[in-house]
Amino acid sequence: LMLTTYFGALDDNLETALALPVAGLHIDLVRGADQLDRVLANAPTGLVLSLGVIDGRNVWRTDLERLLAKLEPLLATNREIILAPSCSLLHTPIDLALERDVDSDVREWLAFAIQKIEELVVLARALNSGRAAVAAELAASTAAAQARRTSAKIHDPQVGARLAAVGTAMAARKSNFGRRRAVQIARLDLPAFPTTTIGSFPQTEEVRKVRAEHDKGRTSDADYERFLREETERAVRWQEEVGLDVLVHGEFERNDMVQYFGEQLAGFTFTKYAWVQSYGSRCVRPPILYGDVSRPTPMTVEWWRYAQGLTERPMKGMLTGPVTILNWSFVRDDITRERACRQIALAIRDEVV
After folding, report:
1. CA distance 155 to 111
2. pLDDT on residue 24
3. Low-confidence ranges of the chain (pLDDT < 50)
4. How far is CA 41 from CA 14, 23, 77, in A?
5. Half-sphere exposure of residue 156, counting CA atoms within 13 Å on the CB side?
6. Domain range 2-150, its CATH number among 3.40.50.1820, 3.20.20.210, 1.10.10.60, 3.40.50.720
7. What residue ranges do the domains of the chain occupy?
8. Residue 27: per-residue pLDDT
9. Measured between alpha carbons, how far apart are the two ends of the chain, in Å?
10. Residues forming beta bridges with residue 294, ordered by sequence position
């Protein structure tokens, strides 16, 4: 019986785990790397240790030589050790070989489930037979890691400068709530209890069909935009008829609440076949956040302006927030999640102000 733990270190639960009547213990050394020394020092001699050294929750290629330097000292422990992904690979897409349209440089930095298993095999061969047995594979891994660290496609000095300039003043409103509330009341002229709805209307079978035809090149950009404008106007007129006070445009142009924005932000790339389970039977293709994020052009302004031009009533502008975009993406692992989220937040801020 192998007790499998993942998504973090055992910490205060380590003593309990080591006392259980099991043959082996799997630990996550991607999100709990610091626990290895403590586990080695306290694990019973006969306990098999499964080391989750390949990231099972993200899509980045492993720097195999750097990882080997950490694993090779374990050969002297004379323990029975198994190498494994950090967790189930259901969290990663299946095969990178299918993704022929991803930028060639970015593609070299990625590894999906099949490639992660291949990485495990290389590590095992290096430990069992020596590095010379997998010299070519190690060299390719090192070259990819070095290229990723220095690539101009990842590092944007302007984004770095903006982050460095963020201060407390940006979090302060220029006027107090009372003043803002008075302006809103005068400008919007809403009743005491206004009505509205969420931004997205149902993506009907017809909407999905036309989008698919456009994606395949069978519908022109002009015809596709004309269709979306007609759907938008239909949604606006219906809201007027039922008597809503603050309207939405329906978001028919958006293929997904995260993908739509990621496709227009620098620093993201997308796949065609990299489906993963979201929950239940729902599957998604998460964006891959590989570099510094910025907003080259407005993303939603024109659709909001068109919808507002159809009605005298206030039209909401809908933006997916930075935390949602971050959590629904495969996030780069060369910077902190906080820094990546702040980059997205600044890009979304540009859309607002």
Report:
1. 21
2. 96
3. none
4. 11, 17, 10
5. 17
6. 3.20.20.210
7. 2-150, 157-352
8. 97
9. 57
10. 266
